[in-house]
Amino acid sequence: MHQVRARAALNLAKASVLRDTHRPDDDQAVEMLSRAQGVWDERQARKYSASAARGVFISSDYPSISPASWRRWLDPKPPLVIRPSSFQKLDQLLGSDLVSLLDVDVPVDDARQGFFEAMACGGLLARFPASENCASSSLLVKADAYRPYSALHVHLDSIEVCSYASSEPGASEWRRVKVIAAERVQRYLHDRWNLRTGSIYERPGVAPSGQTKPDTEVCSSFSQEGPDRIHALLFSLAKDKNFVLGPLLGDWALDMATAALALHARAWADKEVAFASRRPVEEQFWCSGFDSLLFTNDPLQMVMKRFGMISSDAWQPARHGKALVPLLRARRTYAAFLKTLGLTRHNISSLVRAQRVAHPLEFLG
Fold first, then answer.
1. pLDDT, position 168
2. CA–CA distance from 3 to each of 59, 114, 341, 342, 358 (Å)?
3. For the chain, what is the radius of gyration of the CA atoms?
4. The predicted structure's pLDDT at residue 106
5. Which end of the chain is more exposed for a tag (fewer CB within 10 A), N or C?
6. What is the DSSP letter of 319?
7. The pLDDT value given to residue 259
8. How many CB atoms lie within 10 A of CB 168?
9. Low-confidence ranges of the chain (pLDDT < 70)
10. What's the pLDDT at 331?
């Protein structure tokens, strides 16, 4: 998982600096580091001018990253581990300019350092004690205290939580870790998207039509839903294409994928009920539908067939043509975002399959 996190962090840094000239399949070492040094030099010049006006001169050592190191990090066969200090240099190099380059969910003061280090070497599970045999209360405290930098950090967390498996044969504590971490991801998404106090609706111009919330059809169905149903809310927003096919499209697509992975993590922690029952439960159909929509190239007919097996009202947009365009746009947007990070949907699905290999379903009798 570290290699996936590291590649995402390095490519995001490169994309934020090179913008339209970013190529995720090319390390672009010289261009990237030259441009990044320009960002550094401009920031140091501003600091020097400000300090000189006060009669105090401040200088900082340049956090040098060699082109050879950058090429090695983005090689198709990268190192198994890239030291946190390397990403600390990247954070220092971009510094406070990160705020103007990326859309982050934290106060400006918190974004100045640690963004890329947290993306590559940190995360939700990194906050948990090394032993799985710790009290649930300790895990809950650690989870509640976690404050991610951005929705992308949480998406990487959801991939890691979904692929998480115990290294000890026959162990069962992995279920508790998986559930508590997945629930923290769901609470983060609920804080962003719940229809009463969601932070995402506070952004100016969230929809081209001037809407500040989805239409009443969606609101009436999900105004009281809790974090454990955030996947259903995000899916049902497809009914209001005027709302989601605007500035929020990228957030919606990414967060829907995050919600799908968190749901799958919770369901696999209770796999004997969610996946092995002779009478399949709703979570199985949700997981199957999201997998088909976001992590495969299944034709749309197959996607809708899988979602059509869900018994609740949340799947109803699948019956209406107006929902198909937003769902297809979400699929393409998510795939394009992964490509920017140098990743593919296959990378994600391969990691998710790891939990099934480590803790397979066992049919008895």
1. 58
2. 34, 18, 12, 11, 20
3. 22
4. 40
5. C
6. G
7. 97
8. 11
9. 50-60, 96-113, 130-133, 166-172, 207-210, 219, 223, 271-281, 309, 311-322, 358-365
10. 94
Residues near 298 by Cβ (< 8 Å), separated by ≥ 6? Answer: 292
Q: Which amino acid is at 90?
A: L
Instruction: Calculate the CA dihedral of residues 147, 151, 153, 155 and round it to 10 degrees.
Output: 120
pTM comes to 0.88
Q: How far apart are CA 235 and CA 285, in angstroms?
A: 13
Please classify residue 112 by burial: count the beta carbons closer than 10 Å to its beta carbon, then call 0-12 exposed, 13-18 middle and 19+ buried. Answer: middle
Can you tell me the distance from the alpha carbon of 330 to that of 339, in angstroms, rounded to the nearest whole number? 14
Q: Cβ-count burial of 363 within 10 angstroms (0-12 exposed, 13-18 middle, 19+ buried)? A: exposed
Angstrom distance (rounded) from CA 315 to CA 351? 27
Amino acid at 324: L
Residue 137, class by beta-carbon neighbours within 10 Å (0-12 exposed, 13-18 middle, 19+ buried)? exposed
Phi-psi category of residue 123: left, alpha or beta, with phi > 0 → left and psi -120 to 50 → alpha: left
Give Cβ neighbours of residue 22 (< 8 Å, ≥ 6 apart).
11, 14, 15, 28, 340
